[in-house]
Amino acid sequence: MASLTNKPRRAKKAGKQIQAAPLPVKRSATLTLAVYPLLLLTAIAFCSFRAINDPDTWFHMAFGRYVAQHGVLPPSDIFSHTAQGREWISSGWLSSVLLNWLYDRFGPGGAEFMVFAVVGSATLVVYYTAVLRYESLGAMALPLLASTLAAQMRFNPRPDVWSQLFAALVVLLLGFGVIRRGANATPARLPWLLPFVFMAWANFHAGFMAGLAAVAIYMIWIFLQTRKARQPVPWMILLPCALCFVAWMANPYGWRLLELAGKIKSIPGFDKLVFEWMPMIYLPGYNLEWPAYAGGALLLCLCGMVIWKRATPIAGWRYALMILFTAFALIQRRQAGLAAIVLPAALAPHMAGMEAWMGRRQRELIAALALAGSAGICAMQYTGVLAMGEGWPVAGLNCRMLPCFAADFLRDNRPPPNIFNSYGIGGYLLNALGPSTKVFIDGRLDVYDHSTWLDLLAAEEDRLSIDEVTRKYGVNTFVIDIRESIGDPMHLANRLTARTDWKLVFFDDDVAIFTHETPETADYTQRLQFRHVSPFAAQKLAGSLSNPAGRDAALAEIKRALRLSQGSANACALAAFAALNIKDMPTARVMLDAAFARDPASQLAKAVQQSMR
Q1: What digits encode the pLDDT tens for the residues 1-15?
Q2: How far is Cα 137 from Cα 276, in angstroms, rounded to an integer?
Q3: pLDDT digits 0-9 by tens, 312-321
Q4: Are the C-beta atoms of 129 and 303 separated by less than 8 Å?
């Protein structure tokens, strides 16, 4: 059955065998087995050890913390006041426990190490399979470097990173199950590991469903090929594949884990409004940074080259997997990491053929391209070209993407319940404040009733008034994203500022906190409110500074704003505005420079700069 054979063969052309140019064995072994893997791991390290910015990381860790403390899965949601009692199915309970343990023990570096270890393992298992089983000379390093660039946006400490490793294992194990010819052939044994892979995968991440699709494609192909060749069905290969469809149920939720996908899919408009669920190419302003597209295009080009210059026939199931997972990534950009590892894994048996086609200087060319690719990825990370470029590999938090300072303020000054918060910051607040202080919404959209999600959108778009939100949910505190607020009178922050019963108690460049002034909250608001300083009402500050009685109080509030926000651009711009109003030009220039150093795009700083001219 030649069509089912996956044993590498050398191509023949005009009766002459094409072979790689011979090189000394010692040099070949060092380059192939050590240098290329080191280049791969270096690039992965630069893309893994960078400040954590994903807000969903934090609700996964909150779940893991609860399991570690109580020894059981939470029976229902305990972190929000809008979904209490509703079922919470974790997309990866075991990886959440591990993630929380690593973070508690080693800080952000522990969480980042998990990403490096998982992605690095997935990459190395594909690379060494191509080298050791399929006799590649190391050219597999090139598509794997391209896949690193394409998928680096998904190198976040959260459960879905595990799907990259398990998907690679599944594709490679399926390749080990191909029938071999010969009278003394023995049934393949490695495919019997597949059910155990799915048992683990279902507990680490719900992406196992994509793996089941891969197994189904493989089984259909095997069945059709044996029917075509009029041979008996190879049950010793199909049976372990069939067991995969049962093995995944060995998770605490059982078959209910399948409900997770349906719940997410039913959320109105989530795939057009939540960044990671958007298609790969979307509206201007919502697309990814160019390196992700460049890496994806390069990976597809390399795959096309391998297919074009293959020395052995490529099985139909491998084509089908490449098409399927590429479509996954195009439809949902969050699947980019999955597609980026499946494509090289599917073509692992055929890299040797491309190497033979490259000719006598293949190793020098491959080595030069691999070095350039690894160095290029590291340079892009160092210079900030990548979406989350931070310089050298670091361990920490990206407090421009996460509400770090707002959470610190709320930890020290527990807000009056209930909270209304923007979607993107809910996960971090949940972890920092919960379960005693409960959030309105976060990234677990499958946990919430659709009405909560729709009310969030309506409130932000002024289709649901502040009073209606307050009455319906008993809200006394708004914690909202203000990055698009300056100059937009309909933004929720500006609408709250216009109200006399809502008081600003905290702001930085990204988040503002408003508290409803009622008899029950009067002590809180009187103690913490900003009476003179607000990035949404600079004219109030000008009025206070013009009055000798209010000047000292206004300047004291500016100092407090600078301290609470850790020197935010908004606070620095207000300090520059205050110095300008009291004719202290040297201080005004210093504070304006500080504002632009913190945020070169600060709208408030630009307005102050304009007034200084």
Answers
A1: 334 444 444 444 443
A2: 36
A3: 789 999 999 9
A4: no
